[in-house]
Amino acid sequence: MSITTKLGTATLGSALLLTLGAGMAQAATVADGNTMATLRPVALNGVKASGTAMVTVNGNRIDVTMAASGLLPDSPHAAHIHFGADARNECPQASDDKDGSGTLNTTEGGPAYGPIVVSLTKTGDTSPKSGLAVDRFDTAPGGKISYERGSITVSPDVAQAITDGKSVVVVHGVDHNNDGKYDGDTKSDLDPSLPTEATDPAICGVLAAAPAGGVQTGGGGTSTPDNTLALALGGGLILAAVGTGAFAARKATNRL
To answer: Is the domain of 252 the same as that of 125?
Structure first.
């Protein structure tokens, strides 16, 4: 082998090692972890619902479980994980009602929670493009959501935001006039073909590091406010699902 060939081979090998090393370093910057959010009514929107969400981060994949009750029954409820580098990374406040309508729409909540980064659809695409895929979101039978989906692919930035406590879970869909359906003259700020009730934020919670030991469901286990809420909702989904392999059987069918 000539000296030139040897040098070329050595250079290529070094380049490959540097590329692999850079990729490993980037992957190492995303800390895996378990996060939880207590979902509470969004200010001004008159919702009496509540819930709990749990997100497990494994590299660039997340597993999500969510339980909620008190929502408008048998109606689609778009649900997302939101994050924005310039957002406050929190749930909206009454002061976010910029048009003075007395309620908060999704755009008004944007400065608090940021844009959609994950659409919590039941099937198919989970990107922001599916933010209004009303046919693929939970319809809250009896006013309750019981959601579970694993192996959702996210970007490193989104994975990091979740583990850093900078992302927010928002469930949309509000019955402002209490007539049991989405209607009214005010149109959605996101899609004028829909009433604003269909897209206004209902409940919201910031994802933060889960308590040590996770959420237990059996007798004698650690009890936390989130655990109590999950059990009250019939939220057997939010078991110690994080780290227990509860998603293993579903990953093959849920992989995008």
So the answer is: no
